[in-house]
Amino acid sequence: MQNNPTAPPSYDKDTPMVDPKGDDEAAVARPKVMLKKRITLFHCVSIIVGIIVGAGIFVSPVGITIHMRSVGMSILVVRGGRVLYSMRSVLRGAGGVPYRVGGEYVYIKRAWGDFPAFMCLWMNYILINLVSVTAATHIFANYVLRPAFSDCDPPPEAIRILAALIIGETWRQAKIEDKI
What is the pTM assigned to this prediction? Predict the structure, then answer.
């Protein structure tokens, strides 16, 4: 065996290796590893629930603090949840790395074709994303107004107006950025 520091430890001279220049014909024929092209109703509902619950991360710390009756313990519970959420995000991101970017669109296009993927894209864009942004903005407006109304809940009209102003300002900033 040659004394090659770059060769893997299990290198055998009879085992063909992949050419670093990209010529895969010299490589050993290996079976292709692929996911099943199947999306069920459960998968679709899981995606939608995951998107909707994503805005709930801003509401849950208040409920945890109220029910735990201990600020320190509630902070530990919220931090633990965020660590688990981060781990989930890393693993979910690793699932999309090998092939293409595009989220559910790519997977649905591969499984069912162009039209269902296009419809999924528009349904996400028009319905799910708008509802998610609206819910997150409503929650944010509620949190911003709560200190001003310390003895009672903020009026729903004030929350709606502030949420509309936030969305309008975000849209205005996006238009300015689009011109640059």
Answer: 0.45
